[in-house]
Amino acid sequence: MTHLLRLTVLLLCFAAPAFAQDVAGSADHPLVGRFDGSTIRSYETQEFDEVHVARTAGEVSTVEGAVTRLSYAYPAETSLLQITRNFEIALEDRGFDILLSCDQDDCGRINYDVEQFGNSPSWADAFNYRYVMASRTGPESTAHVSLFLSVNNRNTYSVVTVTEEEAMAIRMIDAAEMQSSIGDTGRVALYGITFDTDQATIRPESAPTIAEMGAFLATNPDVRVVIVGHTDNQGAMAYNLALSAQRAEAVVAALRDDHGIEADRMAHAGAGFLAPVAVNTTAEGRALNRRVEMIAR
């Protein structure tokens, strides 16, 4: 009876809500949850990247897909084993298979550094850590979750990395396709514009799509548009509304400064996650919701 009661408490721990100390714009990943009393120290996402994981002791392989990486700080009274068991039970409850659970003595010849454990930070202690790797194959996607957990100077931290396998979408759309879409629907969704995580800084690989937007606007001088930023549902609503507006403003600035489009032809707005085109419960859906739209006005 005692054992069953303890398992129940552990599962409930992972259902706890976010805390005020979490870094701005962060959110627990819906596939994982969190340990009761922990706080998010850092948070980043990549639409498509590779992650090094260990499925068996001593063997490291690579998985690719949409990546979410969070770092948590834990209450001082909790042990590495307690957090690890909570994590394993929560994942199994969500349909994951635990492929590897090990500590510094039995992880094999797995290097604990940044490359092998997917950006585990400099605080990691090679003589006091635990690692868990789990996978789940579902009808829509395959997900991999890894936990790297360590104590350093009496502080307990972890890196939780979620990789949701998906094919990298071909996101390029040219001026002619933009004109056709706007002519048919009054809008066009653009997936070729990406930004640094939690920033409004446009990444260099976005240049071709912005150039095509400039070409469309240059060849249609009477068209006035609104550039609208959209996000997925990770993070608070107010944060995403502000971030999506800043990103839309950055696109307007690039069209004005780099392609000579008159500023009075363009307005900008941010919709945050209020206008999804897909569910936010899968990597594919979240990727579709993260977009820039150009709307005729």
What attributes characterize this protein structure?
alpha+beta; six-stranded antiparallel beta sheet; 7 helices
Summarize the structure in words:
By secondary structure, the protein is of the alpha+beta class. It folds into two domains: 2-164, no CATH class; 175-296, 60s Ribosomal Protein L30, Chain: A (2-Layer Sandwich). Helices cover 28% and strands 31% of the residues. It has helices at residues 2-13, 80-93, 114-117, 175-185, 207-219, 237-259, 283-289, and strands at 39-56, 59-73, 97-103, 129-137, 142-152, 155-164, 187-190, 225-230, 266-272, 291-296. The strands form two sheets. A six-stranded antiparallel sheet has the order 1-2-6-5-4-3. A hairpin with a 2-residue loop joins β5 (142-152) and β6. α5 crosses α6. The longest helix has 23 residues, at 237-259. The chain is elongated, with a radius of gyration of 22 Å. The relative contact order is 0.13.
Between the first and last Cα atoms, what is the distance in angstroms? 66 Å
DSSP, total strands? 10
Average pLDDT confidence is 84
Structural class: alpha+beta
Beta-strand residue percentage? 25-35%
Low-confidence stretches: 1-13, 15-20, 112-122
| Number of helices in the DSSP assignment | 7
Q: Nearest-angstrom radius of gyration?
A: 22 Å
For the sheet with most strands, the description reads:
6 strands, antiparallel
User: What pattern of helices and strands is seen along the backbone?
Assistant: HEEHEHEEEHEHEHEHE
**Share in helix:** 25-40%
What's the overall geometry?
elongated
Strand order of the largest sheet: 1-2-6-5-4-3
Domains counted in the coordinates: how many? 2
